[in-house]
Amino acid sequence: MLHLYTFIYAFIAGVLPSLLWLFFFTHEDSAHRKPRAIIFGCFIGGAIAVVVSIFAEKIIADSITDPTTRYICWAGFEETIKFIVAGTIIFRTRMTEDPIDAMVYCASVALGFAAIENTLFILGPLSDGSVAQALVTTNMRFIGATLVHVVSSSFVGFMIGYVFYHGRLMKILAALTGLAGAIALHATFNLSIINANGTDTLKAFGWIWAAVVVLIILFEEVKAVRPVPLIS
Question: pTM for the complete prediction?
Answer without folding.
Answer: 0.85
